[in-house]
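Subgroup meeting minutes
Present: P.N., E.W., G.H.
Scribe: E.W.

1. P.N. recapped why we're keeping a running log of single-chain structure predictions: easier to compare across weeks, and new members can see raw inputs and outputs side by side.
2. G.H. added today's entry (283 aa).
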Amino acid sequence: MLNSNDAMFEFWNGDGGRKWLDYKDRMDICLFPFGQKAIESAQILNGERVLDLGCGCGNTTFEIANRVGPDGYVQGIDVSRPILAEAKARILAGKKRNISFEFADAQQHAFNSDEFDVIYSRFGVMFFDNPISAFNNIRQSLIASGRLAFVCWQPIKMNQWVSLPFDVVSKHIPLPSDDDPEQPGAFSLGNKDKLMRVLFEAGYSDISIEPFHSSFNLGADLHEAVEFITDMGPASYILNEEEHSHELISCIVNDLNKELIPYLNGKGVLLDAATWIVTARNK
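Output recorded in log:
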């Protein structure tokens, strides 16, 4: 039986990684305002060295590289080899010299001490098997008083882009009732008290956890939004847990279309999303 960390490796190097690549452009649009807010909170300066944790295909890494300039450096790490292959190809295409990408598990990777001025992450810190150990490990790579800045999700009930599809699906399929918020997953750091405790016990100081709300763009139109929800979004894993009849899936799709109509405007299908913007310092 896989432990939680092994399961995350298997997921991101298997079906999860494949789906992320299929929807990489859509994901970058969805996540842009949240990642940008976290970058601004990091207050990254020209010439600094930055670690982009859970860098994905490298959009945030390239943004940070522009901010640190040629005298700075940014290293992106991720546990998904197929996703990193996409990121590395972008270095060659863009001829960037102040970026590198590395396959690494931040919880166990042997970082060099005092290597980075800033550790940054856009939704890449919620999947640790042991978050206290992981945050302590990455802290070792920070200089004295080095900065941590990341964005993570608040609980599901605060995120309409997840709760609305769940409500629709639950009318047709019983939702799992055994989800453990202590287990790795997108919403594992949603509890503010837990998040504060994890960072404090991992050795950080000056911890700030502030709410940030924005719209999550599910798609340019209803068809694109429903396709995202059922193939990539959180509801997709419920639908894919077992075989469901074509008729049942059609009913769910029809209900999703109806429920999403009020949220469609000229910019796309926009639902509310709630995150934490977190900053801290190395003690």
